[in-house]
């Protein structure tokens, strides 16, 4: 039971279940078009309806995290982007959060110490905030950076930045390192940095009082992935003994056995159906609240959510369903804390769809109960307002 409790300790904690079933939902966006920043909604888990409450203006908040006490929200400012100057650094913005009123108050902003920050995670003790700097340019290249968190919620300047070297065989996508996520092990002792450019899952030991910084490479350094696959996002299963990885360029989900900081590849499944000839682009991956199902988004020409059942005996996955996202480029999605709804944002068609989920079978009702329009929606976090 220790590993089960630990594996959930570093996932998003939504807080106590509200009596009326209404959560506060934060939506991150890209702001180059119709969007202004972070949008706050009321999400009713009884009906699947979302009602907008407020918006906090900030540039390209494409990934969000909420502090364990739900008092603070942190967002990347994903810059410079494909067409921006390579000399420009991205940012990390901190906000005070009143979940009951659905209001965000800007606190401060620091440099992400790299280009194109695209992911955030807390250290297990919440002393540090980590970002993955994807970096579309070889200079400065992909990295992860570590920021101290202050008691008033503000984020401090980076205390450690780790750059990766090398690339992969896919021209234009793997010309240099592209760090896409920073994920902690269930026991909090290790951190894995998924590098889409180098086809590696880098592993680091976490020591809060470490020098010159809290993260040091493990003796084995990394878990090599097949060349050209492009590892993107990693999650751990409910038992803490298995991990699941989306590889963007290959359009696959892989299963690993996990033990004491080491990942062993045991299974790889295609997201696409047999005979599919279009472009693929694996993106987000999430576990159902009961740990029985894994969901992954597939972009490109597929534009769907793929559903897998978890074998409780060995952690292996079995594909059980596909659900079109009803739009273009489902970059991110979320399963609400009740497990009754899956909310997906279609980045390139400015829509959000809410699918009814069957907690027993894991399948989604193909006819969404609700949907709404929003410019480039790309991340969703739900928290209790109480």
Automatic annotation (TrEMBL):
Lineage, opening ranks: Bacteria, Pseudomonadati, Pseudomonadota, Betaproteobacteria, Burkholderiales
Name of one Pfam family that matches: Lactonase
Keywords: Carbohydrate metabolism, Glucose metabolism
Gene3D superfamilies tied to this protein: YVTN repeat-like/Quinoprotein amine dehydrogenase (2.130.10.10)
InterPro entries hit by this protein: Cycloisomerase_2, Haem_d1_sf, Lactonase_7-beta_prop, WD40/YVTN_repeat-like_dom_sf
Organism: Paraburkholderia susongensis
GO CC terms of this entry: cytosol
GO BP, sorted A to Z: glucose metabolic process
Family designation: Belongs to the cycloisomerase 2 family.
GO molecular function, one term: 6-phosphogluconolactonase activity
Name this polypeptide is given: 6-phosphogluconolactonase
């Amino acid at each position: 039971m220790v590993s089960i409790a630990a594996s959930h300790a570093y996932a998003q904690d939504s807080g106590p279940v509200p009596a009326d079933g209404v959560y506060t939902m934060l939506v991150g966006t890209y702001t180059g078009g119709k969007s202004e920043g972070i949008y706050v909604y009321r999400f009713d888990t009884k009906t699947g309806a979302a009602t907008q409450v407020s918006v906090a203006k900030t540039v390209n908040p494409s990934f969000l995290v909420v502090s364990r006490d739900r008092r603070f929200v942190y967002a990347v400012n994903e810059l410079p982007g494909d067409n921006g100057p390579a000399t420009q650094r991205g940012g990390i913005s901190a906000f005070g959060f009143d979940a009951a009123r659905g209001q965000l108050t800007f606190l401060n902003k620091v440099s992400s110490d790299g280009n194109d920050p695209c992911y955030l995670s807390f250290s297990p003790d919440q002393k540090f905030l980590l970002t993955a700097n994807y970096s579309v340019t070889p200079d400065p290249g992909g990295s992860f950076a570590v920021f101290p968190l202050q008691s008033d919620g503000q984020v401090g300047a980076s205390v450690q930045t780790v750059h990766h070297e090398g690339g992969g065989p896919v021209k234009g996508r793997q010309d240099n390192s592209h760090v896409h996520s920073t994920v902690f092990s269930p026991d909090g002792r290790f951190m894995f940095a998924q590098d889409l450019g180098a086809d590696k899952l880098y592993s680091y030991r976490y020591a809060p009082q470490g020098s010159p910084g809290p993260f040091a490479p493990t003796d084995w350094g990394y878990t090599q992935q097949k060349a050209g696959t492009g590892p993107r996002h990693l999650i751990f299963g409910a038992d803490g003994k298995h991990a699941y990885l989306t590889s963007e360029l290959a359009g696959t989900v892989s299963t690993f056995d996990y033990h004491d900081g080491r990942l062993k590849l045991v299974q790889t499944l295609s997201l696409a159906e047999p005979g599919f000839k279009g472009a693929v682009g694996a993106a987000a991956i999430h576990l159902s609240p009961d740990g029985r199902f894994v969901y992954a988004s597939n972009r490109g020409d597929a534009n769907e959510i793929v559903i897998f059942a978890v074998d409780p005996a060995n952690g292996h996955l079995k594909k059980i369903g596909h659900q079109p996202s009803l739009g273009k480029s489902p970059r991110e999605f979320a399963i609400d804390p009740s497990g009754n709804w899956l909310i997906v944002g279609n980045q390139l068609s400015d829509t959000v769809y809410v699918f009814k989920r069957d907690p027993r079978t894991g399948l989604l009702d193909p006819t969404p109960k609700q949907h709404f329009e929003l410019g480039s929606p790309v991340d969703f976090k739900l928290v209790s307002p109480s």
